[in-house]
Amino acid sequence: MPYFKTNTEWYEQSSLLLKARPTTTRITSKYSVLKPTASKVQKRQKYAAKVAAKSKSTTDTSSPPPQSQNLEEPTATFTLKTYDPISGACLQYETTKAAEVGRLIGSLGRLGRYMAALPEVAEELSVSTENAGISTPAVEKDTKAGASAADPKAGGGGGKKKKKGKK
Amino acid sequence: MAGDHMETDEFFSKLTDLFEYNRKKGHGTIYLTQKRLTHDEVETLSSTRVLDDPLWDTHPDNPLPVLIRASNNASSKRSGTNRPGTDRDNIDKIKLSTVVQSDKLDTFYARYAEVCKAGMSGLKKRDRKKGKKDKKKKKVGPAESKS
């Protein structure tokens, strides 16, 4: 059960899983606020001491005084988990940033469209065409790409690989 | 649980309360789940069709509704121990659920995002000002040492 490093990666893999098993796959998002454990508090104390010592040794450049963060401050995390009990596939992404919540709920909504068996959103189509434009800077390649695009749409990925090879 | 799903408006107001409750408590967890609702679909499907087409669920005839669930973490009081971490209270499980029809998905998720953004206040805020603050302090620092 991997934790992905980026939310786009999580989204892509989850969408693939949902396409394959739209009925059994579920997405659980967990918002968790926890008091720090004793060891975490200890770590924070050590870190605070280290920062204080460092600022003392280099007084002339004077790094900002350590933000006396409350050592007992609870840690909040937001974890997204896509799980399919039949195949056992479990894809996870975790963040602590509030700025990402909106984007993540947006991708939950797009994944919800797969669950509802609705066609993909128009936005995504425009994104894919943008990508195609970026990856085909030369005119010659464009014509070839157009020829390959005449083949089934699933071949798009293959076309991109070929272009990369030529570069 | 089947049959007592809430209306969207009620779900959102209860979800807001749930986040608010969590904030007051200062710690705790909220679980949000979404999955395809196939309860009715499976019953009406004849088994022969499933056998003929095992992958029927990847291309259903009609768009299906999505089930959204939300809950908190229940906890039970532990007695007889005085170790740290065992001083928790009895907290009942709060369960919310709603069914979103496929045509209302977009509007639902727009509201859902708002509620979640407002509710998840414990997460780290974007600290853009950090760099600026540092510069200011650096400027202030030497000035003080000179005087």
TrEMBL record, chain A:
Biased composition (Low complexity): 49-62
Segments for region (Disordered): 49-76, 125-167
One term under GO cellular component: signal recognition particle, endoplasmic reticulum targeting
Cross-referenced InterPro entries: SRP9-like, SRP9_dom
Pfam assignment, any one: SRP9-21
A biological process from GO: SRP-dependent cotranslational protein targeting to membrane
Domain (SRP9) ranges: 4-115
PANTHER family: SIGNAL RECOGNITION PARTICLE 9 KDA PROTEIN
Protein name as it appears in the record: SRP9 domain-containing protein
Provenance organism: Pleomassaria siparia CBS 279.74
Lineage: Eukaryota, Fungi, Dikarya, Ascomycota, Pezizomycotina
TrEMBL record, chain B:
One GO BP annotation of this record: SRP-dependent cotranslational protein targeting to membrane
Superkingdom to which the source organism belongs: Eukaryota
Comp. bias (Basic residues): 123-140
Biased composition (Polar residues): 70-84
Gene3D superfamilies linked to this entry: Signal recognition particle alu RNA binding heterodimer, srp9/1 (3.30.720.10)
Transmembrane segments: none
One CC-aspect GO term: signal recognition particle, endoplasmic reticulum targeting
InterPro entries (alphabetical): Signal_recog_particle_SRP14, Signal_recog_particle_SRP9/14
Subcellular localization: Cytoplasm
A GO molecular function held by the record: endoplasmic reticulum signal peptide binding
Region annotation Disordered: where it falls in the sequence: 70-90, 120-147
One Pfam family named in its UniProt record: SRP14
Keyword terms, alphabetized: Cytoplasm, Ribonucleoprotein, RNA-binding, Signal recognition particle
Subunit structure: Component of a fungal signal recognition particle (SRP) complex that consists of a 7SL RNA molecule (scR1) and at least six protein subunits: SRP72, SRP68, SRP54, SEC65, SRP21 and SRP14.
Similarity comment: Belongs to the SRP14 family.
Function: Component of the signal recognition particle (SRP) complex, a ribonucleoprotein complex that mediates the cotranslational targeting of secretory and membrane proteins to the endoplasmic reticulum (ER).
PANTHER family: SIGNAL RECOGNITION PARTICLE 14 KD PROTEIN (PTHR12013)
Protein name per Swiss-Prot or TrEMBL: Signal recognition particle subunit SRP14
Lineage: Eukaryota, Fungi, Dikarya, Ascomycota, Pezizomycotina
